[in-house]
Every structure is written in C-alpha cells, then in structure tokens.
C-alpha cells in the first residue's frame, strides 16, 4: 500500500469515524481502523460486527493519490491523534511487508504496528433490501428530536432503539423509555416500490450518525436488509444490526380524552422549567398548576434546601383548571426538542399521561407519564 | 437583610467566587456562600479558614441597592445555578427571621434555607504586614508561566506552592516539583519600605486567582502577614495561609557549566514535541539528538505500538553535538510557558539538568532534569 493524502482531508475523515473504534477491547483489532486503498480512493472503516462506520476519500479530486493498493488495520487512537497534529500538506502512508505502517510528512517519520485487514469485520451484504431516500436536513432534525427519549437501561433492549416505520409517503421515528415517548414523521421519497416494515434501530449509532451529517442539502439513502440497516450520505456510510423485540405503540399511552389543553410560549416555559428543576431534588418532581385563564405555576421542593414557585403566562387555555406533577428533567428534554415558538400541553388528569405538541406542526408529538403525588 | 441587585452583576460575582466553596463538606457551612449587606454594598465570601475569596458589589453605581443590612450563609451551588438562570433585571434577596433566604425576580419566588453567618470563617487580620503592588498584566502572565510546575503530590507540601521573594525592585516567583523548575521575575513597586521575606504561596488558589484577574490594566496589592498573604485587585480579594517548609533553590539544580547551547523556533519545537510525545509511552521519554549544525531530531517509542522521529531546524548552535532524554510532557509544558518567538536550550550532558530560556527575555528560566536511559 502507498497513498498520498491531504492532511486536512485525512484528519477530517479520522475525526468522523474513529469514535466508532473501541477505546479498549479484548479483541485488539476492534480498537483499530481499517485503511483500504484501491485505484479509486482510500476507504476508512471502524466499528464492530454490530455497527460499522465507513468513510471514503475518492482519488479523483486531488485529495488522495493511490500509488499502490492494499489494506491494513492501524490503532485508531494513535493514527487519529497523529494525523490531527501533522502540518498541512500531503501525508504519505505506506505499509511494509511485515505490516509496519509508515507515515511521512516533511521531516517527520512515524511507524505504527499494523494488523492484518482480513481479521477486521467486513460490512455485511444486505439481502432482500428496500431503499428509502430522505433529505438530510429533515432526517438530522428528526433524529435529534426523537432519539433523546431512548431508554438507557438494557432491561428491554428494544427500548434503547428508535422505531422506524413507513406511513404512506412518510417515515415515522419513535423512541420511548416507558415513561416518556417522542415521535415524529419525515417526508421520504421511495425510489423503489419496496415494502419497508417497522424496524428498531439502535439509538446511539443513529444519534452519532446524525451528528456527522454535515451536508444538510444532501440526501441519505436508507437501505433495509433482513437484520441490518444502512445509512449512506455522500462519502459516509453507517451500517448496524437491527434490535429485536416488541416496541410499544403511542396509542397505548395516549389518553382517550383530555380535560384541559393549554398553549404556552416555548422559550418562556423552557427557561422557567430549568430554573424550577434546580430545586426538584432527587425525584426531579415539578408540579404544574393551572392558576387562571392566563397563568400556570411551576413549583418544586428539595427537603432541607428550599422550594421554588414561578408563574408563566398562558397563550390559550381550554378545559378545566388541573394540577399535575412530572419529572422536570424529562419535561425539559421534551420542551427543548419541540422546536416551535409555541407548545401545547394536553392534560387528562393528574394520573394520566401528558401529551405535548408543537403548536404549529402536526408532524411530532411527545408523551410524558406523570409522577403520582399525594397532593 | 434586604437588597436589590442586578442579575448580571450578581451572576458574575457568584461565577467568580462560588468555586471556592466546598462541593461537599462534612462541615455544611463550608459549602455555603456568605452574603453580607451593609449600606456601602454587598460582600460575597466563599472558602475555608486556609483560603478565602471575597467579592464586593458596591451600592454606589446602581448595581446594588441595600434596603436593610444583615448577613446570611446560603448553599453556594443552588444560589449560583439559580441566579445564573434568572432573567436580566433586578433581583431582590431578603432574609426572614428564621433564616430563610427569599429570592424574587418577576413571577419567580425561590426560598433557600440559610445558615447563621457567625459560624462562617472570618477573614483573619494580617499582622506585621508588608505591601507590594504589581501590575495585573505582568502578575497574571507570571503566575501562568510558573504555577504549572508545582508538585501535585502532598509528599512535600511546600512544593505544591509557588515561592515568592523580593530581589531588588522585583519579585521572583518559582515553582518546582523536584524534576522541573519554573522561575520568573516581575517588576513590583513597593509603596511602603517594608521587608518582604521569601514565602511559599499555595499554587492552586494562586492560579485560580490569576484567572479571575479580568482587569489587566489594574494593579494588585499583595499584603503579607505573619502566616497569611492577601491579593486584592478592584472588588476581588483572595487571602490564604502560607505553606511552611523549605524550598529548593534554582542554583542547586543548575549545572556549573554547559557543553552545548541551541536556539530553536518555539512554535516549531512545540508542535513537533507534541507529535513525538504521542508515541512516548507511559514513561513519556522523548530523546533529543543534535544531528548537525542546523538540525536536531526528536524521537520516541512505545513498545508494541510504534516509534516516531522528526527533525527540527536549529537557529543557532554552539558547543558539542549531544543527545539527551527527558519527559516529553514536562518539556511541552515548559515550551508552552516560554512565550517568546525563540527558545534557548542549554545542555551539560545526558545526565545533567537542561536549562531552558526564552531567547529574548532574561526574566524567566526553566530547568528540567533528564531521564537516564541506557542508550
């Protein structure tokens, strides 16, 4: 293997994908990063059999010149830290017969012990696949607005994922940890008339991938195989195994009827919620009380420290004057995700889930189970 | 107690000094922050008997209005987090008879349990004191350039401090952990003809204080008492106990004669040192070899991972072609502190300390003990 590549280009590629390499692994090759040079360019890959990230630097546009094809696995951390700190200009990467990777730039020569690329997990072929195309801007936003609600516990593995299913010309993403639920649709263009059944995508790689979608004008092709899913946009590719197990439906959590509906300014609610949550203690309990047609009160209390009470103006109210308690930290996450000037809260009583919707956008909704209090 | 104070002003004051309050303490009052209102303004204090930070918001310029004098201790973390998040405008802070502190702003009312201010450590009076005045800009820079070299081990407590002594019209600051030493003088104007003997100031509070010196045009008054020292600039005051115990002199570490002296571009040396250190392993050993009249090589090796070698151009060389090994991380700290376009390294042999000086500034110097290697 012999390649010449722009330091900036290589540093950017490594910055993107090296996080997928294990920091420490009983299987040393999984802490590695695979470099594969062919006449068309350089492909970098990192990950494990359940999740693989791949980035390609094409040789066409002068960023990389492949002198000799070949492949090798290099310790990800050392390579990334080194390339990031090299001066600008072309870097040469070559590989000796005994798998020593030599990196040169100006007066610098670095030699890293490589590992055989054959032992590195390969990207599985996707059989019986269906493809859906989604605009990056909408996909990135939707993942951010939904994926925060995944469960962090391994008790029910499917809840650590984001459910994805087709609904007409749209794709609906849903995440829940059993206490809160976030759901949003995105317009998607199917280029092939394949079926796209409901699947559950691991939440963490999905969030990581969404942060790497730098080209917001582009499109992501989502390819669904039998037990894996692939996201591909520009030179970046992420493929991961789907999660097995059932996924709760939002309908099960949504109350049949509501007793009150109130609309508030999102930023005013968010700022007050964050402040009142400061004194919500270990249980994070924040109480919302509808005071009048024009104001609610948020309150909290931490034993031995103190208590908080703030009023927030209401834009519109219909129905009864209720009070309900909830996890202030969960509600903050939801209000932060709402992404709309006003937000509507639908209450069905102090023991029934609260439904939260952006006031001007029907494509997303959130559900939060209340905390049962004595008061 | 009743005061009205601008949210921005109070938030800035709390941000500065609340770090001095203990995060968790077996003595609850040390996790508190003392508020003391008198007709002249509001004084905030945090710390412990060995180190106290104090900030005063004067009532004169409209930032604070004291309605009723009084003092109380409030949990530092809660107060700081709350005030930071309140909207701009005036905040009122009052105190009930049963020591509940009430904070109001717009529609918000927060109540925090206070503690009796009499139990809070008082600022000790400085007896037999001497005063020296130093320009903030020079003092801030000098502390940054020296304090990194303090010891982090409690084995010899005096080495966790910065030695400070008068030398003619100057003050010399020195720090060392036994392996490396950093020293620098600052011009100081003594307004009183007091003696200012050598003392050792705890390194951590000194560094923290230097970061709070926002007014670089101002002056700091340093008042030395029998066993405490006070730094005061503008509205900010820091007082801490001096460290007892001997402090090594730079003369003991400095070789009597040098075999070689080389001058290099500081930034080129620094960047190369950081890269080569990536492969210096757990021992952090980096080797410097004078290759010729015009170049040195820095090299390192990590077992089972790889090795590094880079050349750096020399601006000027006199003496022998030597090789010496040192802790790359310590040398990086020193070269970062040098703050000059070129740096001079004076070598006396592979077992003798290296002396490092900014090429154009006689006021500072650094000493680094080499690592003894077999090669």
Automatic annotation (TrEMBL), chains A, B:
Predominant subcellular localization, coarse grouping: cytoplasm
Q: Write out the GO MF terms.
A: 3'-5' exonuclease activity; DNA binding; DNA-directed DNA polymerase activity
Cite the DNA polymerase III beta sliding clamp central domain residue spans from the record.
137-248
Which Gene Ontology BP terms does the record give?
DNA strand elongation involved in DNA replication
Where does it reside? Cytoplasm
The family database entries (Pfam families) matched by this protein are listed as: DNA_pol3_beta (PF00712), DNA_pol3_beta_2 (PF02767), DNA_pol3_beta_3 (PF02768)
Gene3D superfamilies in UniProt:
3.70.10.10, DNA Polymerase III, subunit A, domain 2 (3.10.150.10)
Key words, A-Z: Cytoplasm, DNA replication, DNA-binding, DNA-directed DNA polymerase, Nucleotidyltransferase, Transferase
- Domain named DNA polymerase III beta sliding clamp N-terminal: residues: 1-123
Domain of life from the UniProt record: Bacteria
**GO CC list:** cytoplasm; DNA polymerase III complex
Residue stretches making up the DNA polymerase III beta sliding clamp C-terminal domain: 252-371
Query: According to its UniProt record, which protein family does this protein belong to?
Result: Belongs to the beta sliding clamp family.
Q: Which PANTHER family match?
A: BETA SLIDING CLAMP, DNA POLYMERASE III SUBUNIT BETA
Subunit structure, as described in the record: Forms a ring-shaped head-to-tail homodimer around DNA.
Q: What does this protein do?
A: Confers DNA tethering and processivity to DNA polymerases and other proteins. Acts as a clamp, forming a ring around DNA (a reaction catalyzed by the clamp-loading complex) which diffuses in an ATP-independent manner freely and bidirectionally along dsDNA. Initially characterized for its ability to contact the catalytic subunit of DNA polymerase III (Pol III), a complex, multichain enzyme responsible for most of the replicative synthesis in bacteria; Pol III exhibits 3'-5' exonuclease proofreading activity.
Give the protein name, as stated in the record: Beta sliding clamp
């Amino acid at each position: 293997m012999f390649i010449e590549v722009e330091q900036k280009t290589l540093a950017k590629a490594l910055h993107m994908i090296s996080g997928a390499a294990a920091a420490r692994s009983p299987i040393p090759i999984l802490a590695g990063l695979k470099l594969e040079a062919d006449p068309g360019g350089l492909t970098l890959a990192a990950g494990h059999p359940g999740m693989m990230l791949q980035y390609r630097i094409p040789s066409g546009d002068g960023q990389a010149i492949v002198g000799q094809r070949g492949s090798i696995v290099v310790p990800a951390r050392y390579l990334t830290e080194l390339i990031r700190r090299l001066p600008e200009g072309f870097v040469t990467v070559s590989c000796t017969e005994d798998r020593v990777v030599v990196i040169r730039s100006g007066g610098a020569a670095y030699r890293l012990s490589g590992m055989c690329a054959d032992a590195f997990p390969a990207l599985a072929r996707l059989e019986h696949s269906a493809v859906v195309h989604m605009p990056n801007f909408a996909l990135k936003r939707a993942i951010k607005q939904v994926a925060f609600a995944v469960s962090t516990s391994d008790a029910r593995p499917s809840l650590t994922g984001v459910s994805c299913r087709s609904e007409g010309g749209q794709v609906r993403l849903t995440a829940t940890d059993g206490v809160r639920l976030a759901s949003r649709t995105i317009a998607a263009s199917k280029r092939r008339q394949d079926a796209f059944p409901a699947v559950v995508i691991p939440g963490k790689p999905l969030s990581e991938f969404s942060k790497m979608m730098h080209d917001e004008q582009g499109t992501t092709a989502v390819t669904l195989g039998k037990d894996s899913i692939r996201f591909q946009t520009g030179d970046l590719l992420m493929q991961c195994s789907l999660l097995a197990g059932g996924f709760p439906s939002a309908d099960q959590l949504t109350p049949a009827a509501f007793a009150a509906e109130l609309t508030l300014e999102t930023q005013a609610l968010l700022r007050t919620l964050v402040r009142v949550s400061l004194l919500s203690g270990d249980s994070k309990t924040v109480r919302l009380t509808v005071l009048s047609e024009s104001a609610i009160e948020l309150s909290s209390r931490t034993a031995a420290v103190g208590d908080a009470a703030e009023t927030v103006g209401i834009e519109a109210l219909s129905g009864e004057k209720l009070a309900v308690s909830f996890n202030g930290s969960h509600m903050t996450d939801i209000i932060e995700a709402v992404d709309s000037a006003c937000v509507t809260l639908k209450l069905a009583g102090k023991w029934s889930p609260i439904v939260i919707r952006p006031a001007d956008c029907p494509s997303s909704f959130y559900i939060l189970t209340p905390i049962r209090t004595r008061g």
